[in-house]
Specification:
Elements lengths: L15 E4 L5 E5 L5 H34 L3 H45 L6 H51 L1
Antiparallel strand pairs: 1-2
Length: about 170
Amino acid sequence: VHYGTSIPPQYAQQKSEVLDSQGTVVKTIQAPKTAAQIAAEKKQKAAAAEKARQEAAQRQHDQVLMDTYTSVADMQRDLKSRITAIDSQINVTNSSISGLQSSLADYENRADRSTKAGKPVPANVQQKLDDLRSQLATNQKLLMQQQRKKNEIRAQFKTDIARFKQLQAEQANN
């Protein structure tokens, strides 16, 4: 305990109290925060801000669900429509892949015939082989993306339908 009008340097980093003439505490001065305390508060504020952002995003998504759909049947029809559209894209991509594979096999046979005859593969045939392989790889990648998108849509609708049911139940209880 130290009484005086100024705080000695060795106690400046500690909590202090200001007393009036009767010795009653009139003001408490908190100790300066340590770097660890400041970092912890910053982390806590960031977590609180992220939680608030997620809650706001959920409220917005909930509002979109309630404004867009009137029933689970509406949602299921929308899901079916989206899956049908992606299935159509997948079918087109599969057809393209089949055509590319057929062309690739034809050009590979041409290249094999040249090689077996002891001749080099003509430049135009080699270029076509390279192009077909590139197009085939691109379309196979596209097919995988389309299938992944289809799975993502199904998963999102499953989650949205469950949330929609929950929101409808909450509305019915209010």
